[in-house]
Structure formats: C-alpha cells, structure tokens
Amino acid sequence: MANVLVVAEHLDGALRKVTRSVITFARDAAELTGGDVDVLLLGSDVDAVAEELAQYGVSRVLYANDSAYANYLAENYAPAIAAAAEETDAAIVCAPASTTGKDLLPRVAASLEAGMVSDAISVSDDDGLKFRRPLWAGNVITTVEVVTPVKVVSVRTTDFDAAEPSGDATPVESFDPGVAPSETAEFVSFDQVKSERPELTDAEVVVAGGRGLRSGENFEMIMDLADTLGGAVGASRAAVDSGYAPNDWQIGQTGKVVAPQLYFAVAISGAIQHLAGMKGSQNIVAINTDPDAPIFQVSDYGLVADAFEAVPELTEKLQKLVD
Fold this sequence. Notes:
Layout: E1 2-7, E2 10-11, E3 14-15, H1 17-33, E4 34-43, H2 47-53, E5 60-65, H3 74-87, E6 90-96, H4 99-112, E7 115-120, E8 122-125, E9 129-135, E10 140-144, E11 151-155, E12 172-174, E13 205-209, H5 220-229, E14 232-235, H6 237-241, E15 262-266, H7 272-275, E16 283-288, E17 301-304, H8 307-322
Parallel strand pairs: 1-4, 1-6, 4-5, 5-12, 6-11, 7-11, 13-14, 13-15, 15-16, 16-17
Antiparallel strand pairs: 2-3, 8-9, 9-10
C-alpha cells in the first residue's frame, strides 16, 4: 500500500480551491496505489481550514500549527513536508502547480531524493505509474514515469474537478515535523494585491483583455463586465507587457492557468502562449474585429465586432438582468 500526501494551500484563513482539485488527483492516484489520501496543512491559527479539509473524504488531516508556518517560506515548509511524507509513508507527494507549488516542490523532491513530475494532467497504471503532462504550450502531451520510491508531483489543477464535501468528517491530527526554523532565510513581508474580485485561478467567470484595447484606461470596461458577472479580470501577456494591466492578471504560458466556467477573451488574438493558459475553460466567448483571429478556433461563441461598442452594450444588458 502506498499513500498519497496532499499539501494544502490556504490564503487569508481560507482554503484555496486549487487544493480541492489536487485532492481529486490524489484520489485517482490512491485508487491505483491502493493507499490512503492524507492532507498536510501548515499554518498558524487556521483551525477552520483544517476542519474544512476534513470534509473532503480524505483519510486524515495532519495539522502543523506553528508560528514558523504563519507565512509561507520555502526553507521552513520543505523540511516539514518531507517529514510528513515519511510519517505518512507517502509514495506520492502532490500540491498545486501554483506559484507556491512551483517554488516549493522541487525543494521537497531534493529533500526526499525523489523524482518529480511538473504540471501533471493525469495519472495511470500501465506497468507502473505513468503521468501525462503538457509540453510546448500544450501542443504536445508526453507520458513520463518516475522510478524513485517517492514521487513528487505538481498538479495542473485546471484538469481536475474540485473535490466536493463528502458529508463525513475525517480525523484532524496534530503533527510536529520536528524540524527547526531556517537560520538562513527570514520572512520579511508579503505584498499582496487586495481585491474585491475572486482570485483569478479560483474564479468561475474570467473576463480577459488584450493589446487590442489600446490602453489601461480601456480596461475599465473589462472590469465593469467582470464585476457585473461576479468574475475576475485577466489579461494577455501583450497587454501586460504594454503596461495596460498588472502582472498578476496575466494568463498564459508564462502567466496563470485558468479554467473557469465562462471565459471572455476581449480583443485577444489568441496566440498560442495565451491559449495555453485558458483553453481548458468550459465556455469561451471571443470578441474580436478580425474574423480570422486564432481565438475563434477555440471559442464556443464568437462575435466579430468592435469591443469598444460590444462590451459596454453587453454589460448594460447584463446589468439589467442582474438588477
């Protein structure tokens, strides 16, 4: 029996939706290994998060409650996760392929002398565990095998449904990693962008704008549409590089990967680098003046029109429906 350990992510006292998608991946892997799914929560004063995690049908939740984990610092988190992997006899350690996961998991793999798979989109058993992951902006899907006893996996959460509460609470156990805080690194500050809108990677609706909007001021109409739909605002790399939108809005191969229920691509041509970050969306609506724009090849609904006329009109009509 080989267990699977999920490293949970939380922010501002709330569980991040991406962790629920990793739990789904972990269940798939545990069915193949015959093991249990354990979840590790590192933090301080996040008891509510631990209790929420216990609702998702995992075997148990290990909770390391320590001021050393109050703020994310890879030098403190990685040794604790490695200790939890040994404690739970984990054959697979997994976490979201988020900014934090990409920073953290290579260190965990090094601590465990384990092979690592990045951006896994599936797991199967074909004479040994095999993982599929995208290459070349998702145009190539490769199958890889890790032969080390322990495998570390970052999960592309957009390819897995978020786990739903099972109705039965599982045990929440206190866990002491037995490792001292780092003496070489110190948490200084976290300059978090505060917004009333949902987190981009967690949002059910995303409205993204491209360089075709011509200025940052014109992103106001994108924000109005997003606010009307209760969604998040995104941008193409071209728009970010042009200074129209902040870096944390960037979607694509070098930005964030999203898969909302509804995605609006406004004045975005559909370069392959952008498609890599959003083509997993459930419903894609494209608005562009160019009928040959590549974005229309992946969209479910396309409108060949001037965004400066179409978006305000659409927002006005949607606002009447909401009101």
